[in-house]
Automatic annotation (TrEMBL):
Ranges for domain Predicted membrane protein YciQ-like C-terminal: 3-153
Stretch forming the signal peptide: none
Segments traversing the membrane: 75-93, 99-116
Name assigned to this protein: DUF2207 domain-containing protein
Region (Disordered): 216-248
Pfam families on file: DUF2207_C
Biased amino acid composition, Gly residues: 228-248
Keywords carried by this UniProt record: Membrane, Transmembrane, Transmembrane helix
Domain of life of the native organism: Bacteria
């Protein structure tokens, strides 16, 4: 870590989590992560710092105003669904089964719509559309098209593929990783020179995904067990661990 000036809040939380708590002397490595998570005493702190970082990310996401505030509209739809409930009971009492089923179906449909309805703002629609186009483009992209992208576009595309649970993107990432792990020399040039992209970034991104997933599983299981187990004992140990899992 060279410079901490001008960081956003979620970036500050991430630096505190990785470089201050897990790493040392402004340095962080996956070996540090493995060593840190092997110590069960660190699991609660790991979960707390991760939760603080995720909370900061969510706060920044909310500030971006990607979704319109439809709380009043959703409340109205919820009330309409509840209005149908007494009618459904009246129908079943009077053996009007068809009307009962219709009223129940409408009430459930309205309630599901109310809790799931989210309307994006213009900015949100624009960003969503861009990512959807990128996802479609990546899954259909040939190697020659990949070479024509800028380094920034390639890195964003690869990280996006790592971050979403999309089979086509996972397969594309696997093929790209194999491509960069192929022959080091091509016509006397390094692979990174041929493709205009540093293959170490792919290796780091893939390793990061694997290492943090493993660390998450290790700390989450132990943290959950210690939190639940401490509930029946003295109250001193529960408060410190409660903030970690509560923000997920």
């Amino acid at each position: 870590m060279v410079n901490r000036n001008g960081l956003l809040e979620h970036e500050e939380k991430l630096v505190e989590w990785l470089f201050d708590q897990i790493g040392a002397k402004n340095e962080f490595s996956f070996e540090d992560l493995t060593t840190y998570t092997k110590n069960k005493k660190n699991h609660t702190k790991y979960q707390q710092l991760q939760a603080a970082w995720k909370k900061a990310v969510r706060a920044e996401w909310k500030e971006a105003n990607l979704y319109e505030d439809k709380s009043k509209y959703r409340l109205l739809i919820t009330c309409l669904s509840l209005v149908l409930v007494p009618f459904a009971f009246l129908f079943v009492i009077n053996d009007l089964l068809a009307f009962f089923l219709a009223a129940s179906a409408m009430a459930v449909a309205l309630f599901i719509f109310a809790i799931s309805h989210k309307q994006k703002t213009w900015q949100g629609e624009r960003i969503y559309s861009e990512w959807q186009r990128l996802k479609k483009r990546i899954s259909m992209m040939a190697d020659i098209d990949w070479q024509q992208l800028s380094e920034d576009e390639r890195m964003r595309a690869f990280i996006y593929g790592l971050g979403v649970n999309e089979k086509s993107l996972k397969k594309k990432n696997e093929s790209l990783t194999k491509m960069f792990k192929g022959p080091v020399h091509a016509a006397g040039l390094q692979t990174s020179t041929v493709y205009g992209f540093d293959p170490s970034l792919i290796i780091v991104a893939t390793a990061a995904t694997s290492n943090f997933h493993s660390a998450e599983q290790t700390t989450a299981v132990d943290h959950s067990s210690s939190t639940n187990g401490g509930g029946s004992g003295s109250g001193s140990g529960v408060g410190g661990g409660g903030g970690g899992s509560g923000a997920f």
